[in-house]
What does this fold into?
Amino acid sequence: MAGIRTFYPQLLGWAAQEPSSEFGGYFMFTRQGVPVAGGLGDMGDMRASNSWRVHLATDAIRTTVESAAAAGAQVILEPTPVGDLGWQAVLQDPVGIPVSIWQPETFQGFSVLDEPGAPCWFELWTRDDATSLAFYQSIFSWQMRSISDSDQFRYAVMLNPDGDGQLAGVMDARNILPESAPGFWSVYWEVEDVDLASAKVSGLGATVVRSPEDSPYGRLATVADTSGVEFRVMARANR
It folds into this structure.
């Protein structure tokens, strides 16, 4: 954990807050004084997942978890209070991909998107996009739009329920992932300069998994932190 507590501040300009003994050593990363992400190491016999975890908000966590279970999800952690901050649950969706659920009380979660050092995109890589789309549309009322629907590239985006734009994507990754690799949620972090960020990653003893490249949406690269956890850095084309 010590490695990532220095890696992300140096790469993304975050500050690592002190671990909380009340919550098993969980700590917050902040950006300009505002929470942007969290981290947690091993807790006794429970090993850390060594991956970024997406949390989806709900205002009725017990109902959401019950509905998810009825739709084929596995409940890993039943709804559990986290002090006065809110309630958390952990699921494996019907495709087997972990996702967390958060019902806020005093802590609403991160509040900034699409700025350097903040998240700019979330992406589900799934081996069964039809099942994934049906699940998230049914349980979380996502409105989706298909971007491409061919065997070569099948991708849909989640529309922002609070206004214009899009918040996340669902990738049909069955022909992309190695045979033994499970699906996963991926996080994109906004940066000013993808090439500079990639050079920083290498200088910090981490790994550039896929070199910077241009896309219709901006320049991006896939990297892995000092623990081997992959994520993406991106400079949007329209920023």
User: Anything to note?
Assistant: The first strand starts at residue 15 and ends at 16. The helical segments are 2-12, 61-70, 129-140, 194-203. The chain is about 20% helix and 40% strand. The chain has a mean pLDDT of 90.
